[in-house]
Amino acid sequence: MEFGDVQLTGLKDYQKVDEIPIQYGTAGFRTKGSRLKHVIFRMGALAAIRSACKKGATIGVMITASHNPEEDNGVKLVDPMGEMLGPEWEQYATEIANVPDSEVGTALQKLTKNLGVTTLANSRVVFARDTRPSSPILAEALEAGIKAAGAQCQNFGLLTTPQLHYIVRCINSNGEYGKPTEDGYFEKLTEAFVKLRNIRKAKKMKKLETYKACLYLDAANGVGAGKVPILQSKLGELLQINLVNDGSGKLNHECGADFVKVQQKPPTGVNMAPGQRWASLDGDADRIVFYFIGTTDKQFHLLDGDKIATLVAGYLKDLVQATGLSLNLGLVQTAYANGSSTRYITDQLQVPVACVPTGVKHLHHKAQEFDIGVYFEANGHGTAIVSDTSYSSLKKASQDSTVSEEQREACDLLLSVIDLINQTVGDAISDLLLVEMILAALDWDVEQWNQAYTDLPNRQLKVKVKDRSVIQTTDAERKASSPIGLQSAIDQSVAKYSHSRSFVRPSGTEDIVRVYAEADSQDAADKLANEVAVLVFKMAGGLGEEPKLH
Ligand code: 16G
Ligand code: MG
Questions:
Q1: What's this model's pTM, rounded to 2 decimal places?
Q2: Contact at 8 Å (CB) between 63 and 129?
Q3: Domain limits, CATH 3.40.120.10, in the chain
Q4: pLDDT in tens, 214-267
Q5: Distance 26 CA to ligand 1 centre (A)
Q6: Distance (Å) from CA 255 to ligand 2 centroid
Q7: Quick one: 458-539 is in which CATH superfamily?
Q8: Which pairing describes strands 72-78 and 29-32: parallel, antiparallel, or unpaired?
Q9: Any atom of ligand 1 within 6 Å of the Cβ of 504
Q10: For the CA atoms of the chain, what is the radius of gyration?
Q11: pLDDT tens digits for range 165-206
Q12: What angle do CA 371, 375, 376 make, to 5 degrees?
């Protein structure tokens, strides 16, 4: 079988195991690990073509299924600046993944021809994987695919997803973004953290009274667990991390950021004392949520992506003001953002907020419209990005002797904060350091952070339907445009409860429709979610039993 001018050697080892179609969704391909060998082999070749289309820039490939169960796996491609694969290529990925085994060579050949690619010999692909049992075999398949295409490749072994994104950007910026290694990653982040934390000492400010440099961290038994000791070794006493779900248990099983966020409870089996600051990573460490047990009410409180976003945006707003530069700061959320957070950002912080559809690529894209764009999904995935021109003006002002000393210091501080942030994608380790740095700078404990605003009680439900594509949405997923009549029925239900809101959308990662509802009491949010779930069930071809209120 010919592909370009190379043989697709090894294809026989990477044949389809079934004919069920598979789609490159919001987070790449994701399904049972046992179904993915041929897909990943083909993605190796596709990544080589993508690299050729980007003039030989290095493309990344990450093998992970994030917060999914251990038997699942997945693959996603990383573009040269560390961003998600360009949306127009998702279609190519889907086509190549689904062609019959006998047509893979021709399909790839046709694609290279259509894209005007003449050689793949200068293509470069780097890849990494998470800790799933199926990951090593899939990494072999990937390497075989890259090599079959005649491209060069480098295997980075076990990395978190954001580490791979970072490395891809470092390589393609010729080291300007940092050293393209795991060491380089930790060096950049921790040097910035240490510098920012030591400013207090240098300025002889009063000692920290409320903030305690001690964090309890649930690593979801994922790839992040193995990275924490490296991080800890560089932080010394500035932050003591007590690790649970350190990789000795089952991946994502009753633990991790997704479990904690969706269940709104601590990971199973952990022993939380009131007032302790806890956080959970997801399986590939691109999400983080914080939580604690109240010292007075003894209740569980979750500090999700919205609370992180407001903490970060509030801190950055003050810092930007102190620089004296006119940089516009904005925050990007999705429909899942708690209504209280949006109100707090608009009314209290007075930072502009935008709402976009679910999926990192939408948030990232929108955030690029600001000089400094902070984006977070409520589930804990997020980061901040800084435009090149803003970065240059900060650099310039930090060395400009005509600028006041305070303003220069603020510029310098903001530059260090930018170094602490992984701008390529949401990064749980970078976000962890950012949150800890801000809490220390404000001398806040977790309860003070939580007091910024009170979340409206909310509920998420799933509804199984025959074909979830019958649900279509508009207005950043906040309104259903199909089936006809569903939105007005939802509106009628919403009108029955105060401070309420509800929307439905087809999941991009599971074969279900998701329902979200919030209201001024948990009881009302539960009832509203159930009513809307029943509407979806009845109007969109529900399967199995009609949803019931529990
Ligand atoms: C993926 C997305 C995440 C989104 C989630 C929604 C990326 C890298 N990840 O995990 O941002 O929140 O899907 O899942 O884009 P859903 O469509 O099943 O609700
Ligand atoms: Mg993840």
A1: 0.95
A2: yes
A3: 2-158, 186-300, 305-450
A4: 999 999 999 999 999 999 999 999 999 999 999 999 999 999 999 999 999 999
A5: 6
A6: 13
A7: Alpha-D-phosphohexomutase, C-terminal domain (3.30.310.50)
A8: antiparallel
A9: no
A10: 24
A11: 999 999 999 999 999 999 999 999 999 999 999 987 777 788
A12: 165
